């Protein structure tokens, strides 16, 4: 109370007391009136903000600096696990050859036997040796006759030896020459089998017709 009385002693003291009251009242009113809700978005500019009063957190990614240099390449990662096996593909379409055959050879060079493999043959009626079938001794070595069920013009043959034996050569003659000493009547091709010295030999073979 003594302090208040001293403030009101004389007119000068009254003015000072009044100034104190207005100053505190103005600060309280400003603190009460100015809030974030009362500031219009986008109305403040850089001039309204005190220098160095904001930190990077205040910008929330709205301001980006220059792009830094590319970092060094990382080390290679470990190899991944093997993937699952794919589903089998659809069966392929039949080949375009008019006819083909896989012919097996058994026996000896002196008494050879030739057998057609049906599951690996198409449009082939039979395979035979030359000469009289009742007398194998009349057959000419190294010649196998093929009876084809469709008209053909050309053919190619190869031996069935795996790995391929370059000492045995298979060729084909179309059309064949029919006769007692050659292929039986009705044969369409003759497979000629020879070794590298051009000597007739016996061997299994493949033949394709078109």
Mean residue pLDDT: 78
Number of strands: 8
* Shape label: rod-shaped
**Count of helical regions:** 3
Helical residues, percent: 10-25%
Which runs of at least 5 residues are low in confidence (pLDDT < 50)?
A: 1-5, 10-16
Features:
disordered N terminus, alpha+beta, 4-stranded antiparallel β-sheet, 210 residues, 3 helices, rod-shaped
Topology:
Elements: H1 2-7, H2 11-33, H3 56-59, E1 99-107, E2 112-116, E3 124-129, E4 143-148, E5 155-159, E6 168-173, E7 189-195, E8 205-209
Antiparallel strand pairs: 1-2, 1-8, 3-4, 4-7, 5-8, 6-7
Structure in words:
With 210 residues, this protein is α+β, with helices and mostly antiparallel strands. Among the domains are: 1-35, no CATH class; 99-209, no CATH class. Helix content is 16%, strand content 23%. The strands form two sheets. A four-stranded antiparallel β-sheet has the order 2-1-8-5, with no helix packed on it. It has a four-stranded antiparallel β-sheet with strand order 3-4-7-6, with no helix packed on it. The longest helix has 23 residues, at 11-33.
């Amino acid at each position: 109370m003594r302090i208040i009385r001293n403030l009101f002693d004389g007119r000068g003291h009254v003015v000072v007391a009044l100034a104190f009251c207005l100053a505190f009242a103005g600060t309280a009113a400003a603190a009460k009136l100015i809030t974030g809700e009362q500031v219009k978005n986008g109305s403040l500019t850089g001039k309204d903000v005190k220098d160095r009063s904001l930190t990077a957190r205040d910008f929330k990614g709205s301001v980006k600096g220059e792009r830094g240099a590319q970092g060094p390449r990382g080390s290679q990662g470990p190899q991944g696990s093997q993937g699952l096996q794919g589903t089998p593909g659809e069966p392929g379409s039949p080949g375009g050859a008019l006819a083909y055959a896989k012919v097996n050879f058994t026996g000896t060079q002196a008494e050879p036997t030739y057998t057609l493999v049906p599951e690996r043959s198409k449009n082939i009626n039979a395979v035979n040796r030359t000469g009289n079938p009742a007398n194998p001794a009349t057959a000419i070595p190294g010649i196998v006759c093929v009876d084809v069920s469709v008209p053909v013009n050309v053919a190619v043959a190869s031996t069935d030896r795996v790995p391929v034996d370059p000492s045995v050569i298979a060729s084909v003659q179309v059309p064949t020459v029919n006769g007692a000493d050659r292929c039986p009547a009705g044969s369409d091709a003759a497979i000629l089998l020879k070794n590298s010295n051009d000597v007739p030999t016996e061997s299994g073979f493949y033949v394709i017709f078109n």
